[in-house]
Amino acid sequence: MKTIELRPDQPFDLDLTLSCGQAFRWEKTNGWWRGVVDGRAVRIRQDGSRLMFEGADDGFVRDYFRLDQDLPAILSSIDRDAAIGAAIRECRGLRLVRQPPWECLISYLCATNTNIPAVKRRVALMAERYGRPVDGPSGRAYAFPGPEALAGVPHGDLWDCKLGYRTNYVREAAGYAAEHPDWAERVAALPFEEARQALMQLRGVGPKAADCVLLFAFGFFEAFPVDVWIRRIVGEMYLPDLGKNCTPAEYERIRRFSRDYFGEYAGYAQEYLYCARGPARRAA
DNA sequence: CGCCAGGCTGTGC
DNA sequence: GCACAGCATGGC
């Protein structure tokens, strides 16, 4: 068992961070969060200012949870009005984790027009069936399968992972990534808008999925993914003349406004607004 | 049952 | 350029 003593001036809330819907492979049972990240089967819990964990080293935990990122400075930079201020007070300590690009890409490919529990099931099924088994402190788990593994899965078998119409998108992305193993490095090296366009070349990856991958995996904190919840919230709070559904032009307007309004960490504002929305605030 | 969900693609105008 | 159907699946 390893521990990290959190700095008192750097808030961190493990439950909010892992339950807010940014990452799909964490489950909490008996007070412990269990998940698999980059082939590591991790078990972690928070007791006040102390993080206790197994299955990963200190450096990995600090990196994954971005514990060295100055959260109070970020939150004060996006704290532009009473509405976002309330979300910040409600979710203080939520940090954007650094997700592995490949798993993040496939996760958000599987997250179109669906809900979070269904995404978690799809990702879990792919891992259990095609991922490498990893024996960790809490039994057997499965790494998320790499591009080569997924590219070789017959269509019908991937379909059985409940991917539905997204099945071919995942297969095509896997084929592409298997052929271009440096795809993530190349995206990471691009300026934000170019990286965004590069991701959107993949079938099944539109503006929303691209923005999620840029934000959650590549650390482009100016990315502002607009799903139906965020569209609703931004419409109520900031752009009351928005239409009902989110056309490409409206998506563009919302993300441009939000980027300008909240600043270079607009992605944090997005996640705090999303997390503070009504339904999913089930205290883990 | 119907409506909604971390949307996107293809088609038609 | 914009609108609109269709889409698999599961929660509620």
UniProtKB/TrEMBL annotation:
<dbReference type="InterPro" id="IPR003265">
    <property type="entry name" value="HhH-GPD_domain"/>
</dbReference>
<keyword id="KW-0326">Glycosidase</keyword>
<keyword id="KW-0456">Lyase</keyword>
<dbReference type="Pfam" id="PF07934">
    <property type="entry name" value="OGG_N"/>
</dbReference>
<keyword id="KW-0378">Hydrolase</keyword>
<dbReference type="InterPro" id="IPR012904">
    <property type="entry name" value="OGG_N"/>
</dbReference>
<keyword id="KW-0234">DNA repair</keyword>
<feature type="domain" description="HhH-GPD">
    <location>
        <begin position="110"/>
        <end position="278"/>
    </location>
</feature>
<keyword id="KW-0227">DNA damage</keyword>
<dbReference type="InterPro" id="IPR052054">
    <property type="entry name" value="Oxidative_DNA_repair_enzyme"/>
</dbReference>
<protein>
    <submittedName>
        <fullName>8-oxoguanine DNA glycosylase</fullName>
    </submittedName>
</protein>
